[in-house]
């Protein structure tokens, strides 16, 4: 069994004994076969000296037990790392930033405290997964829709705390934005509530997020200032109808007008999440198209457009999702077509129409997450035979935020595709790449870098490429929104305005709120004082 850094064996044993007193011996894990479960299954440093391994894990059942564990950790300066369901695959899994940390696993705290389908909110504990919340709503026939990420097994709280995202309406699919009030165990074991939860007797925790005074909730997302034990979330009222319509446009630069019009529709509240893609990607492995893509960027972009037009294949497509009353869904779709018809050659198609209550048969084959139905179908992505590793066992997400404009998309296509060419790597981007739209008000130019459990050298190559692209993006003002622990110092380093004033401010708070540096050391690039120099 590993010992947390800077902790002597005797103190660690005493602390483990206190953890057992607090939660019971069944819920303190120290054996290798148990602690190994907290390795990051998608770690890009698997089986390398940098791989982060935990010393133990503790799984409390309620908030009093969390407080007891935190007080003990604070007394003996044991680094602890809270997770909710710990399924943060692609961004670190359940592994901490600091090897030897004790994982504080909150999966047993899985109570849905309240769901209100007249005022449209939920209050949940960290162990509540999207599946749990969905089932709770279904069992009670409540008329609210949840917004889930692609994998439904994650935690509503944990996902939001890492700025996770989903697929429906703007204000709901940014899960931290949709949160409303939280309960937190502070590093000294004290219990705090934010927003209206701070007002004894208030019945508005799930409705008004600010309460009064500074809005401190953000400190607990991608931060290390406390253990969140409850969170409220706004929920979308169950709509009457859904329509998914598609527009396709013929030219590469059409993305400029396409994005401007779709932004207009979305920011005016007329559509849910739009999804851009390119029909051309289905042809990338055909020899002629592969030959076009192998050319230098400008030429490749020109020839790809010519090929698309001569084969009457749209260059981009955008799926528009309408939720709401039957009448407005149809009217908004007509309005969208009117605006988008300004783009020469735009073509329209209705893909899918539904009305609630929806049946399992009606959604089979469609993207259920967009309809608020959690599932795990995304993992069909699985291992890919064409990955340039000996086996693709997972991915690390490269996720730079770029402006929500067609001009930025064109620039990102070129910058990243040329970078892959210079590195001599198979490119994950092309002159027709499109951004992800999970963020309500920005694009993410996301790519999954493959990671392997067996090929250390391939992982090293992928890390080098990831670092190079992250630096390249940052030079243009494109920063990662979320990243695996191994890159968190690098990424925080990019947010460097005024000699890293933002990081220095967080460090000042960290030293005041958590002087022993016990909570999630290093998370978000924020290290406690005693570890700062060694990680500088
Ligand atoms: C194929 C694939 C598709 C994916 N699709 C999506 C997607 O659509 N949207 C999306 O957002 N993500 C996606 N992910 C990433 C990830 O799987 C999900 O975000 C997942 O929900 C995160 O894991 P979790 O919910 O178990 O959170 P956790 O792992 O429990 O939490 C995440 C982090 O938040 C902090 N934290 C958690 N709980 C607490 C707490 N109670 N107190 C203090 N800090 C805490 C910890 O630092 C923790 O590591 C995808 C991953 C893969 C591999």
Protein described:
The chain is an alpha+beta fold and 536 residues long. The protein is built from 16 helices and 19 strands. The chain has helices at 9-23, 32-35, 63-76, 130-139, 156-161, 170-173, 254-267, 287-293, 297-310, 326-340, 360-363, 406-423, 456-475, 488-494, 497-513, 529-532; strands at residues 28-29, 56-58, 80-83, 102-105, 112-116, 121-124, 144-145, 179-185, 191-193, 227-234, 236-237, 241-249, 275-277, 316-324, 347-355, 394-398, 401-402, 443-444, 447-451. Strands 5-6-10-8-9 form a five-stranded antiparallel sheet. A four-stranded mixed sheet has the order 1-2-4-3. A hairpin with a 5-residue loop joins strand 8 and strand 9 (191-193). Helix 7 (254-267) packs across helix 12 (406-423) and helix 12 (406-423) packs across helix 13. It is globular. Flavin-adenine dinucleotide (FAD) binds next to strand 3, helix 5 and strand 10.
In summary, what is this structure?
This protein has 536 residues and is α+β, with helices and mostly antiparallel strands.
What attributes does this structure have?
536 residues, alpha+beta, 5-stranded antiparallel sheet, 4-stranded mixed sheet, 16 helices, 19 strands, 32% helix, 16% strand, globular, binds flavin-adenine dinucleotide
Please count the helical segments: 16
User: How much helix is in the residues?
Assistant: 25-40%
Structural class: alpha+beta
N-to-C span: 28 Å
- What Rg do the Cα atoms give? 24 Å
Q: Write down the overall geometry.
A: globular
> What ligands can be seen in this structure?
flavin-adenine dinucleotide
Spans where pLDDT lies below 50 across 5 or more residues: 383-390
Biggest beta sheet summary: 5 strands, antiparallel
**Order of strands in the sheet with most strands:** 5-6-10-8-9
In what range is the share of β-strand residues?
A: 15-25%
**Number of E-type strands:** 19
Mean pLDDT: 95
